[in-house]
Every structure is written in C-alpha cells, then in structure tokens.
Amino acid sequence: MMTLRAAPARETLAQPGFEIRPSTPFRRRFARNRLAVIGAAILIALILMAVVGPFLTSDPTQQDVRSRLQGPSWSHPLGTDELGRDILARVVSGARVSLTAGLVSVMIGLTLGTLLGVIAGYVEGRVGLTIMAFVDLLLALPAILLAISIAARLGLGLTSAMLAAGFVGLPSYARLARGSTLSIKRRDYIEAARAIGMSDARVMARHILPNILTPLIVQATIGVGNAILLVSAIGYLGLGAQPPTPEWGRMLSDAQRYITDAPHLGIFPGIAIALTVIGFNIAGDGLRDALDPAGRR
Amino acid sequence: MVERKNEILSQLIDGVSRGQVTRRQFMASALRLGIAAPVASSLATMARRGALAGGAGSYGPRAYFQDGGKTLVVAIAQSTVQLDPAIAGANGYGDIIPITGNLFEGLTRFKDDSAEIEPALAESWTRSEDGLSYVFKIRPGVTFHDGTPLDAKAVETNFLRQLDPNHPLHFEGITYAEIVFAEVAGVEATGELELTIRLNRPIILVPGNLAMFAAGIASPTALEQYGLDFSQHAAGTGPFKLESWTKDVELVFVANEDYWGGRPALDRVVWRTVAEDTVRVSELKTGGIDIANQIDLKDVEDLQNDPNLQVITGTYLNVQFLGMNQTIPPFDNPKVRQAMQYAINKQNIADVVFYGNYTLGAGPIAPGLPGYDPSLAEVYTYDPERAKALLEEAGVSGLTFDLYNRTTSFWPLLGQLVQADLAAIGVTANLVSLEDAQFFAELNASRAPAFLNDWTWDNGDPDNVMYSLFTAPRAKTRLGYENPEVNRLNLQAQEEPDPEKRAEIYIQAQRLILEDSIKVILGYPSKAIGASARVQNLKLSPTGNLFLRNVDLASE
Fold it and tell me: Which of B10, B248, B277, B501 is most buried, with most CB under 10 Å away?
C-alpha cells in the first residue's frame, strides 16, 4: 500500500508507514476513555478547590487548642488537628500549595529539560553528548538526596522543594525532547527551513519545538503528579514548607504522632495526595491515548 | 482485611515489575483498592483497639532466645552509634546515656531513682582540708568483663586519655572532658588501689562529675587492643556484658556473673532502636517489647488504663527554653528580649504538648535541685499586652526572625505554639526545623538568632546548667552572653560546701539571668517510661539513664 506522507508545518509524531484515516476529534477520543474523564474531573475539582476553596473555609493557621483533635463534626467537617486547626481549611489551602509546587517544579523541569534536549538533539556531536552526560548525571542522583542538598544550599522551604522536584523531572523531558528532535531533524521541512537560510536558533524555536511539544505536554501532565508526590515527601521529611504553612506532606508527618488516637489527622491529607497524583496520572494517560496517532480508530 | 489488601497490592506491584500488568491497569486496580483504603485502616485501628485489651504479650521477641532465660527487651529512641562512654556520638551523648550505665561504671554513681551520689568503683573518698585534692579508694576484687583486674592504674589511664589530647588512647570525639574533669589539674595512681585527683580550685563537684556517663571506666586492655574498634568489644565493670551489637539496630547484653554488686536478676537485655514515639508505644501494647523508654506524655493515660502495662514516672532533671542570641538583632535590644518573656503562654505548652505533665518555667534550675525557686516564675508572667507595650517602647514593629527548632518528637508542636503566641503580639517567627546534628552545628556557630532547646542534667547538680549554659564558652557562642556577676556567682557556688548557702547563690544568679532575659524558661517536662506489668523494680533516673541492675521480670 502506498504510504501517504504529509509535510505539514505542525506534524504529530506519525509513525512512518502508518496510514492516515479520517480521525475522530481529540475531545471525543478523550471523552470515550472513562478513566481519563475521572482523572480530568478530579483535576478540575482540585483546581476549583485551590482557587476558590480558601475563600470559603476558615483560616488554616488559626489555632484553638481547646477544641483540638476533634473528629469530623458540622463545625469542622474533617475534624481538627493537634493545635485545634480546621483540617478542611488546611487540606483546601494545601491544594493551593501543592498545585503551585507541582506546576512550578514541572515548569522548571520542562523548560530547562526541553531547552537542553532540543539543543542536544539538534547539535549532536560533542556539545550534544556533553549535555546528555549532564542530564544522565542528574538522573543518577536520588531525588531525596538532591532535595536535601538543595535545601542545605538555599535553606529550608517550599522554594528548595520545588527546585529539587524540578531538577528531578528535568532528565525525562530532556531525553524525550532530544529523541523527538533527532527523529524530525532530517525531515524535508526542516532541511527546507535551513536551506532558505534560517538560523539554527530560529529553526529550533519555530519548527522543531512546536512539533515535539505534544509528547512533552503529556509527560508534563503525569509529571505534575509525580512532582506533587515528591514535594510532599520532602515536606514529610521536614525539608519543605515550614510550619504553619498547610502542606500535605508536612500534615501527614505531623499526624503520625496521633495515628492511634486521631487517625483522621493523617487520613485526609493522605487522600488528598493520593487523589491528586492519581488524577494527574490517569488524565495524563488519557491525554496521551487521545493524542497518540497510533490509537486513532 | 488489611493483609488481603496488601496481598493484592503486592501482586499488582509484582505484575508491574514483571511487565504483566501495564501501568494503566495498575492505576485502575489501585484506584479501586484506594477507595477502600481509608475505610479499611480505620476499621483496622478500631479492631486493634478492641483486640489489644485481651491479646497483649501472646507473642514477642522472647521467641528469639529459646534457652528459657529472663530476657528483657527495651526500646530506646536513640540509635547507638558507638559504645565508648567517653565519646560523643552523632546525637551528642544522647545515644549512649540510657544504656551506658549498665555496661560501664564510674568511681561514683547515681542511685537508680535520684541524683544522689553513692560509691561505685570507689569504695570511699576523702577531700583534703584545702579542698584541692580528692583521694579515692578503689574497690578491691573487681574485674572488667574481659578479665582485666580493676586497679588505680586502670582508672588513671581512663582519665588521662580524656584529659591529655596526646594520649595514645585519646580518640576523636572525646569532648566531655571539660565538664567531667572541670578544674582537674592532675590525676595520679598513688597506690595499687588509691587514686588522687588534684584540682586548680577547690570545687566540690568532683564526686558528682565522676558519676556522669562520660566518666565510665573502660577496660584499658580492651581499649589498647581494639583501639577505635572498641565498641565491638566494649568491656566495662557493669552488671551486664556486651554480647553482640548491630550498629544502629540492636544491642544485646548478658548478665555479668561476677558483678561486684551481685549478679543481676535478668539474664539478657536486648536494646532496640525504635525512633518513633508511636511505634514504641504500639510495640509495647502488642508485647513486642517490655520497656519503652521515654514515651510521649499524651500516651500516659492510655497505658495506665491497660492492666498488662505500667507507667513509671518520677523527677526528671530537664529544662526547656527559648534561647536568644543577644549579638544578633533584634535580640541585641533587651526590651525585645523581655517582650518574648511576656508573650509566651507556658500553660498552653503544658496542656497541649505535655498533657499537664509539666511544671511551668521559673529559673533555669529545675525542681528537685538545690536552687530551684518557684517564686522566680513571678518575674515574668504571661501578659501579651505588656509584651506589645515593650515592643512599642523598643520602637520596633513588624518584627521578623528565624526561630531554630528540632524536628524530633514534640518539638514541631511546641514550636508552632510559640510561633502562634508571638504572632499574637505581632511578631513573625519563621520556624527553621533542623535535624539534631545540624541544629546544634548552627547553634554552636552562633548562627541562630533564637532557638528552642532543652538540657538534661548529666551530673545531678545545678552547676551542670548554671555553669555550662551561662558561664562556659557555650554561653558566648549560643547566646552571646557574658555577665561578670553571673560568672562570679557560678564560680563561687562551685566552691561552696554548704548546700543552703549554695542554693542562695544560685537563686541570686538566676535572678540576674532572668533580668538579662536571654532565655525564656518554658518549663520542666516530666518523663515517663512505659513497661510491661511483668517488669519489676524499674525506676526513673532523673539524669536520663535506664539502670537495669535491680530490675527483674516476673514469670508469665
């Protein structure tokens, strides 16, 4: 059979030899995947919670030691913690902290990783190898160790945790970007762009980057979940956000002391972390399926 | 149910790692499982609570020793990084204090339930007329665990290795000599069984100092033979001998058949490191351990209500405080320091953190010691309005500073209470929570403007806080503090043999320290040990030791 090969300005990563059929629109393909829809619903709920939630709940740092360690009730739907703070308010504000942390660290990893990956793929040779050697070096560092050393340099706090999570994610974006760049750099339209005298930087920015973005975005969606998990882990170790900032990982570690007398202290932030990570993961998977040309039926 | 769930989960994980289950299938299955998780864990908690009342002690570590001996299993919070009594471990001396008194003994020792001194490896001692020398009569017929006989020369070697940095047995980490051998000018074996200690000043603290853990006498033969590897072959004269040691995990002692004080009732002691307070308590409830050293005070009531368990409490010589470094702004301003004193609600700390097992702070000297004066609590009372007024007088507003705190146990909770109290007077305290090693490094490098910390008396004498914290070089590095009058009083008290006059001097010095307001004395926590009801004669030692020489275990 004859292979049709289009050369559009924007090309999804079509496998060579694949036959293009009229495809269902992206939205319908995504909607058909029930799991992905659940994921998306979780994320929308989470974002709403992070944006408007804190206006609806009480102050998450307000202590009321007389009513501490109380179970769920009408005035405190998720109960109160060891200092009498409203757990609902803390979980809701924690969504803002965690989402911000997840997004910022993914932005750090995605931006730097893509930049390095595209350059490494496009230039190849010694420069490319050096860049990839550096990226592989990062990959070899355990995430928590990296977080501890960054915290030691920059001091404790959310910024250090976000930087650490960003650097941990960087290699996956860099490798993906490099691989995709390598696979399209010999295409005719790239050659054409170079033939008309476009500078390398412009070729990378205008022609390569837009065409490799899709898999990176999918990776980034799943990456947000992982980054949130890592930021929580760093918080759990006491290296992340400092009290009284309501951060889920920190809440979990503080709850440990009361695990037998007041398990609700740990259950709710735990559920919040789990749901968020699951949400990003299955939404990311759905996104990939919906965008994957091999999956178009 | 929990087990079944774990089984499904581990099958799933295996499946993923073998490639039989895709990540997506894993997510979907895990999600279904995940919805059940919170319900399952609360059910499990409830079930465990109900089941515990009847089922404790049915299984446990005694299974590892089938020889029928009396084995006591003790869980301690600290990990043991080495066993040389003279050396500070990673956790300062905290990691050997609870255990060391069972393996090593000094010339003197503490009674097992008070800070009172009694003879140990010295039968008796005399102080010279001028107070400048002490003569100790060494107990005859004592041998170390490795068979080496104890004589004055052995004691001399132990002391000189700490005093003389060029001594061949002076190992890295011997840092407590300045306290144990304060004002010691020389040590000499003046007979087969007679040791003379000469002093620079006639201080009366020598017998107490020599009861401290760091003055424990180790076999000189073992020290010479094994050098830095001593910990694996530790030999002292104590009621128990080292059998085996897995660094950071487990330490096994066996009874010393030849102990000079009579063979202990226990045959074997297993020390396990269980860092988490909650885990120690739950292991105690399930019968996994016999003694949980240092339990969270919130669990006291719960354990007391369990007929299979007992809680041992008693005087514990410990003081908690908020320290301020007066060389670092804003604490160079005395008014700001005083504002802190009025701002902190100590009663709140007692209720929330220690469940009432707490004496509110007065002066730096804790209850149970000469010089403790409850009236010093009146110097500063809880008065946030007054604190605000003081800040206004000082002309500061929007005050912000870093408050260094520790990450272990109750410290994060205490830190947040203090933080909220300060927020109430318009002061922002940013908590900087650090692991112990890093925390003390920052303090000793004079980098912490303010910090929360505590001090446990090692020698059962007020001097251990008054001199060590307010006169010694530590006062300068940690607090930037130097008050000549306080120094004079502390030195004078070291030489005052009359206990009443000494107490007077210390009260005077404490007033000056409070006036300078370099520390907010938060209070003195109690300490509690949880134990199985079968454990007999266990006492709480005020200096943090866990002495097992008189402990017995009733048969089941």
Answer: B277
Cβ-defined contact of B281 to A260 (cutoff 8 Å)? yes
- Separation in Å, CA of A166 to nearest CA in chain B: 23
Task: For residue A114, give both structure tokens.
Answer: 């893509």
In B, which residues are within 8 Å of A258 by CB distance? 298
How far apart CA B238 and CA B258 sit, in angstroms, is 10
Q: How many angstroms separate the CA atoms of B532 and B310, rounded?
A: 6
Reported as a single tens digit per residue, the pLDDT across B440-497 is: 889 989 999 999 999 988 888 999 899 989 998 888 889 999 999 999 999 999 999 9
Task: Give the whole-angstrom CA distance, residue B177 versus residue B1.
Answer: 56
Structure token pair of residue B11: 């099958």
Q: What is the pLDDT of residues B370-404, one digit of tens each?
A: 999 999 999 999 999 999 999 999 998 889 999 99
- The answer to whether residues A275 and A99 touch, using CB atoms and an 8 Å cutoff, is no
Q: Per the confidence metrics, is the pTM higher than 0.80?
A: no
Closest CA to A106 of A62, A63, A165, A152: A165
CA distance B434 to chain A (A): 8
- Measured between CB atoms, does A19 come within 8 Å of chain B? no
Q: Do A271 and B38 touch (CB under 8 A)?
A: yes
Residues paired with B250 in a beta bridge = B246, B272
Which of A47, A51, A100 lies closest to A247, judged by CA?
Answer: A100
Find residues 429-458 of chain B whose CB sits inside 8 Å of chain A.
Answer: 430-435
Most confident of the following: A110-119, B314-323, B400-409 = A110-119
CB contact under 8 A, A263 and B420: no
User: Which residues is B253 bridged to in the sheet?
Assistant: B242, B269
Which of B2, B25, B27 is the best mutation test for A, with the most CBs of A within 10 A?
A: B27
* β strands within B315-410, DSSP E: 318-324, 358-360, 400-406
Cα A81–chain centre separation? 29
Cα separation values, A248 from A89, B26, B251, Å: 12, 24, 37
The amino acid that residue B202 corresponds to is P
**Chain A residue numbers touching B43 (CB-CB < 8 A):** none
- Given a cut of 50, whether residue B5 has pLDDT beyond it is no
**Helical axes A264-291 vs A209-236, angle rounded to 10°:** 170
Among chain B residues, the shortest Cα distance to A277 is held by B27
Structure tokens that stand for B309 in this block: 């368990």
Contact yes or no for A267 and B41 at CB 8 A: yes
* ipTM confidence score: 0.74
**Min CA distance, A267 vs chain B (Å)?**
7
Give the model confidence (pLDDT) of B505-534 as tens digits: 999 999 999 999 999 999 999 999 999 999
Q: Is A72 at the interface with chain B, CB within 8 A?
A: no
- Across the range B211-235, mean pLDDT stands at 93
Q: Which residues are registered as beta bridge partners of B455?
A: B319
A278 → closest Cβ in B27, B278, B302: B27
Neighbours of A2 (CB within 10 A): 5
Of A63, A242, A271, the CB nearest to B430: A242
- Sequence-ordered list of residues with C-beta below 8 angstroms from that of A231, at least 6 positions apart, any chain: A98, A101, A102, A105, A158, A161, A162, A165, A240, A247, A249
